[in-house]
Amino acid sequence: MKLIIHDLDSRFDELIADRCDRSVMADGRYAPCQGCFHCWTKHPAECFMKDSLQYACRILGEADDVAIITRNTYGGYSPDIKNIMDRSIATSTPFSTYRKGQMHHTLRYGWANSRKVIVYGDITEEEKDTFRYLSERNAINEAYKESEVIFIDDLSELEALV
To answer: Are the C-beta atoms of residues 155 and 120 closer than 8 Å to each other?
Structure first.
């Protein structure tokens, strides 16, 4: 399954729908992660908050290929995308293992194929370096076989990338 997580407005709904099996729109109409870890311990892979992100970690965990489209925010994800990533912590378990020579949480859903992050908006070279590093670390932690970050100057470039 191909999943697209994005913070784009409704002008891009048709493009997104045509390019994936599932999508999650980061519209900010959900609660931030409370850090209770119930999605790890009491209700595996399900958030106790009954909103549009209640099953976000299951959706993300079951995806083979993930594309994240985000506005740059100081070399990181937009706040709404970051919120989705935070609410998806239960794609792993509270237990630990070694992956690529480093300690990481064990996977609830196993390895995924690819993770592509498409970044738009004003961005400096330093922010690009920060974003590359952040995305690389996320890809290792979330166990993707392939990962890439693409920076675009204009949203019209999206059609060729997703």
So the answer is: yes
pTM of the shown model: 0.93
Is 160 contained in some domain? no
Residue 29 lies in a domain: yes
Determine the number of helices (DSSP H) and then strands (DSSP E) in the chain: 5, 7
Written as tens digits, the pLDDT of the chain (162 aa) is 999 999 999 999 999 999 999 999 999 889 999 999 999 999 999 999 999 999 999 999 999 999 999 999 999 999 999 999 999 999 999 999 988 888 999 999 999 999 999 999 999 999 999 999 999 999 998 989 999 999 999 998 988 888
For residue 57, what is the domain's CATH number? Answer: 3.40.50.360
Structural domain span for residue 144: 2-148
Nearest CA to 159 among 17, 21, 15, 22? 15
Asked whether the beta carbons of 157 and 108 are under 8 A apart, the reply is no
Could you tell me which residues come within 8 angstroms of residue 158 by beta carbon, excluding any fewer than 6 positions away?
A: 12, 15, 69, 118, 152
